[in-house]
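Good morning,

Both structures are done.
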Amino acid sequence: AEGLVLRLIRMSPTSLQRLQFKWENYHVFPSLCGKSFSKLKRLEISYPAQLRNESLERIGHAVTEAFTAIEQIQIETRHLLELGKAGFLKNFPGSLNTLELFGGLDNNNMECLLEIPGPLKKLAFMRLNSTIMMILFPKFLQLCTPC
């Protein structure tokens, strides 16, 4: 079944507008074979575990090279941080205007969000402890405000 789904994705680069990768068990993020998904606007990624290097590289390359018109990404905070450590965030497309994060966020890793080029219109933190949010959000706004 996985092979069929991957073939369907690879056959749809000019029409696919929304793509969801939601796994309950670990699977390697598929290689998109150099295809450009010019109409893809929304990407949702949900992994139960830490990303392995192969998946991390493939997701990073997909967002920076194949999904050039992406506007919305929903991803676990820890996976976004991994993409940042690997150097992908600074190369995210300028078309990205919505980022929906779920999972833990703290003061130490919040600065990686500033690596994303272009202004975001919507930044959503889902499933974040409200006490942590009250402490971190003002600090994040200070980071975003130019001197």
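Second structure follows.
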Amino acid sequence: MFASIYIAATFALLLLVKMRDGGQISSQQSLLDTKSLNLSSSRTIDKPANPDRTLNASSSQVQTPKEQKPGVVQRVAAWFRKLLPFPLLSRDHGYSDGAIPLSGHTLESGFRSVRIGDVDGAYSNPFAPTKLRGVALLFHGCSQNAEDWFSLPEHKLVSSELLRQRFALLALTSQNRVTGCWSTRFPSRENEDVMRVKVAVRQWMTEHQIASAVPITALGVSSGATMLSVLAHELPIASQALYISPGNQRALRNASDKYPSTLFVHLATDQYYAPPSSIAAARRTLVRRNVALVGELSLPNVPFTATTFHDHEPQLTKEVSQRLYEAAQRNENKIAKVLRGEALTKAAIRRGALQIARVLRGGHELSALHADKVAKWLGSQLREVL
């Protein structure tokens, strides 16, 4: 009985997706074109004359993006996907612009755990003072901590790209260790995390003899991104990337022209936590507030192949990656069973595999797709901290 229902749901989903966009997820709504993205710095951008327009992050030209709210077909398709045990992804599905390469392998750079006042953190700074380009602050999502930026597969890929741009990395842990989430309240004086982080960052830079004029960039995920949108009122951050979050709307509405250049990075399939309509509204708000540069990057699903798990996390062998792929192709809930196998005895590796699975599902998770472009964009917007 269940098999019949599942097959019917699968065919219905395929039909709906085909009706929607010909079987492929389109990234044409992205304001950062992944084919011709220009990541060069531009600090002489004219303020938008029309507040209802927005800025292309790869150009100084003012553009009016087309907003498309999800229709009935898209909403029904998203509902069907929730019923499936694993995403219907293959070599022919999930691409937006042909083969999308993953970011390079993580850099072999160790990290150190640290306690800064009452804030737990982790950092990596393999650069001499003359080679250091800036400091990148990293804020995790719920149920996570600072060390995940150096242990979880997607987080490691993002961190490695920031290191390639010669940023010292400082990841901090939220105060709430029950949910693991960050406080998202605004104004800043009512946000305990913002005030703790503000003090910790300054203390860490002083202790590590990093000059106050060294520019700061920042990247946050989910609740970490929302908190970051508030923190930007308290720290002289040059640029920030808000992953899978439209930010705190009150914080955005109170932004000035000194607010950092902001890049919204979200999943094309996310219709709940950071849907395109919410991202578009947040983007317009910052443009109206005369923020120097506002961009958007919509990420398509990651293609699922027999080597995907190994490609994202080398500690997962190609054999295990193949087994996970085959289990998913049988449309059975056997992923968890494979993850409990003898080949994955370390809890950290199992946790990493589960993160990759969430990315493949198109769920609410950090995706390292195009992390190299995000890192370069953040670096292109640096300015000296005053």
